[in-house]
Amino acid sequence: MSMCESIILHYLDKLTDEPLYEKAPNMRPIVGEFKDYMDLVINIKKANFVFEAHTGVGKTTFGLSLYHKARLNEIPYDVIFIRTSYIREIIGRDVKKLLKIIFDHSSEEFENGSRYIYTTTNLNIECNSLYECIDRYYSSRRSGEALERPRELIIILDELEQVYEWDITTETLINWFSETRKYYDENGVVPIKLLILLPKVLKVRELKQNIERFNRMTYVFTEFRELKIDENILRDYLYKLRDNVSPIFAKLLQDDGFKRLLKVLTALQSGRWIFPLLRKAMAKSICKAVNGQIQGDVGQFLKTITTSITSLPTVSAEEILDKFVIGLTEGMLFRADYRSHAIERWTAGFAKLSEKILGGRGERIQPIRIGYQDYILPDISRNVIIWFSLRKSIARDVMQEIIGNILRRIRVTGRIKTILLYPAFSSIVIERSLTLPISEGERRQQRGITFEFKYRALSPEELAAIVSLGGVISLDIAIAEKVVEEIVDDINALMTS
Fold first, then answer.
1. In Å, how far are 19, 158, 223, 262, 455 from 421, measured between CA atoms?
2. Cβ of 444: how many Cβ atoms within 10 Å?
3. Does residue 66 sit in the same domain as residue 163?
4. Residue 367 DSSP one-character state
5. Do 218 and 262 lie in a common domain?
6. Together in a domain, 236 and 221
7. How far is Cα 478 from Cα 272, in angstroms, rounded to an integer?
8. Mapping DSSP to helix (H, G, I), strand (E, B) and coil, where does residue 299 land?
9. Are 275 and 207 contained in the same domain?
10. For the segment 156-196, what is each residue's pLDDT rounded down to a tens digit?
11. How many Å separate Cα 426 from the centre of its chain?
12. pLDDT tens, 408-454?
C-alpha cells in the first residue's frame, strides 16, 4: 500500500469509527444508513423488533445510527442504546437491574454502566416490570408535554445473548414482548419500542416459534428481520462522503468496474470486511488520479481536486480481493489460477470447520473428500455425518451416489443423521431420508441403513468465512472465526433437533 493510500484510508476511518462511538461528536458520523430497516422500526405500529445478523454485518452500527439520528432530532423518537455485553457484571442474572439501567438514570446500576449506554433522554422511573415501566414512562411524558403527543422511545439492546444464558434471554424477551402487547391492547398506544439485536443462529428461529406458541397476538406484534447490507447502503455511504467531504466520491459510481465491486462486496455481507475494502478501492482510485501526490491537509485536498479531475481511474475487484473470493461471491466456487489451488483451499477450510464441530473433544477424525465438490465428516460417536457439498445442483441421484460412497468407506449401522451444508445459490431437491441396502454378506442381519437429512444453506459470506480458515488471507480472520462459530452453533442445534 502506498503512502498516499494509507493517508486517505486513515482519514476515511476517522470520519466513521470515532464519531460513531462518541456520544456527542463534533461531526456527524459518516456511515451508510440501513434506511429501509430504520423506516420499518419508525413507521410500523409494532412494539417488538428482532434483527439478526452474523457478527460484523452492522448490528451495532445500525443501533448507534438510530441513536445519532434521534440525537440530531431527525426522527420523532428518543433512543436508548445499550451495549449490554459490556455491563453483564453490573446486572448479573437479574433482569430487574437491566430495567433499572434503562429507566432509572439516577440508579447506581446506570451510573456504573453509563460508558456503554447511549441515551437522548434522562429518565428517573422506578419500576419492577416492563409493563409498569411503560405505563410510568407514558404518563410522565403525557403530563410533561400537556396536549402534545408524547415523544416515543426506542430501546435498543445489543448482544443481549452474551449477558444471559439463552433460556433466560428467551424467557425475558417473551415476557417483555407480551407486556408491550398487553399495554397496547389496554391503551391503544405504543409509547416504547424494543429493538433486539441478535446473532444469526437457529436459536432466533426457536425464539420466534416459542413466541408464536406462547401468544399469537404477541407474535403478530413482533417483527423478525435479518439485517443485510445491500448496494443501497454502500451507495448511501458514498453519497454521505460526497456531501460531507468531497464531490469526488460520487464520480466512482459512474464506473462499471466500481459498480461490479459493489456487487461483490455486498455478497460478502460483513461490514467489517466490506467497508475497509471499499475504502481501499476509493483510496487506490484517487491516488491513481493524483499520481500518488497529496499536498497539505487531506480533507481540504480532497475538496479541491474535484475541479481538476473529471473522472476517476477504474479499480477492478481483482485489485482489491483474491479472485477466488470474488468467484465464490459470483457462484464460481472453484475460480482460481488452478482448480487444484481452489480444492486445496476448500479442503483446508472444511478441515478447520470439522475441528470446530468436534469442539476440541480430542477425537482424531479425518475428513473425507469425495471427488472435488463433496466433503464428509463422519462423527460416528454422535451418529451424525456432516456433508459439505459445493455442487450447484443436488438431486436424489447425487444423494444416493454420495451416501453409497460413504458406505464403502465407513462402517455405520442403524439410522444416521446427515447434516447437508450447501451453497445458498444451489438448486437442491429436499429429501427427508434415504435408505440404502448394505452389502450381501450383512443383509441377512439388516435390510439397510437409513440416512435422515437436515439442511443448512450457506451464504457467500459464510462460504468466505469457511474458506478463510483454510488460508484465504484477504479477509479478516477474526470475523471469519466468529461467523464459523455461529455456523457451528446451527450445526449443533440441527444435531439435537
1. 40, 29, 28, 27, 6
2. 7
3. yes
4. P
5. no
6. no
7. 10
8. helix
9. no
10. 999 998 888 888 999 999 999 999 999 999 999 999 999 99
11. 21
12. 888 877 789 999 999 999 999 988 998 877 654 544 444 578 899 99
Residues 191 and 268 in one domain: no
How many whole angstroms separate alpha carbon 363 and alpha carbon 150?
61
Cα separation, 366 vs 372, in Å, equals: 16
Helix or strand or coil: residue 195?
strand
Distance CA 497, CA 481 (A): 24
The one-letter code for the residue type at 205 is R
- What Cα–Cα distance (Å) separates residue 354 from each residue in 224, 289, 483? 31, 46, 14
In a domain, 9, yes or no: no
Residue 35 CA from chain centroid, whole number = 16
Return d(Cα 204, Cα 208) in angstroms, integer.
6
| Digit-coded pLDDT (tens) for 312-329 | 888 889 999 988 999 999
Do 433 and 347 lie in a common domain?
A: yes
- Give a yes or no: residue 264 inside a domain: yes
92 shares a domain with 52: yes
State how many domains the chain has. 3
- 234: cell is 454502500
Quote the distance between the C-alpha of residue 419 and its chain's center: 22
- CA 122, CA 144: separation in Å to the nearest integer? 13
- C-alpha to C-alpha distance for 180 and 160, rounded to whole angstroms: 18
Last residue of a domain, one of 292, 321, 350: 321
Give me the domain span that covers residue 315: 231-321
The answer as to whether 136 is a domain residue is yes
Do the domain assignments include residue 240?
Answer: yes
SS3 (DSSP) at 191: coil
Together in a domain, 268 and 211 = no
Q: Which of 226, 251, 271 is at the close of a domain?
A: 226
Using a 10 angstrom Cβ sphere, with 0-12 exposed, 13-18 middle and 19 or more buried, the burial of residue 114 is middle
Backbone angles phi, psi at 197, to 5 degrees: -105, 120
Q: Which three cell numbers, joined as nine digits, stand for 377?
A: 465428516
- Cell 459498480 found at: 259
